[in-house]
Design goal:
Distance between the termini: 26 Å
Largest sheet: 7 strands, antiparallel
CATH class: Mainly Beta
CATH topology: Glucose Permease (Domain IIA)
Order of helices and strands: HEEEEEEEEEH
Structural class: mainly beta
Number of domains: 1
Oligomer: single chain
Helix content: under 10%
Length: 124
């Protein structure tokens, strides 16, 4: 287990369905692709979070999800159209979190979760 995982989640093992992005305190959560906000508010476990619905190049629906944002930092609302790079809120430690970060997930149309790492990081 790596040190960042221990710092953010403690030593006990649990399923972690996304990736934790850690920036300087006060860093913003930015939308990764244009879409429409389907949720902006509190969810148990995730704390303050935003979900954005997107349509890919093939017409397939997928969602991005940003969690644990700081209290009173979400700057978008449900139904709002957002653009790539737009600020959604500020990283924080709300919900079940033990450190300042944004938990990021990608979900299919059926809301099943997929590994976001290949979409964020390339080996080229």
């Amino acid at each position: 287990m790596d040190i960042e995982h221990i710092l953010l989640h403690g030593e006990r093992g649990s399923f972690h369905s996304g990736i934790d992005l850690v920036g300087d305190v006060g860093s913003h959560a930015l939308c990764v692709k244009e879409g429409q906000v389907t949720w902006a508010g509190w969810q148990n476990g995730y704390g303050n979070c935003v979900e954005v619905k997107h349509i890919d190049e093939n017409g397939e629906t997928f969602y991005t999800f940003y969690a644990h944002m700081r209290n009173d930092s979400i700057v978008v609302s449900q139904g709002q159209q957002v653009s790539e790079g737009q600020i959604l809120g500020t990283q924080g430690s709300t919900g079940n979190s033990t450190g300042d970060h944004v938990h990021f997930e990608i979900r299919k149309a059926d809301k099943s979760k997929i590994d976001p790492a290949p979409y964020l990081f390339s080996e080229t």
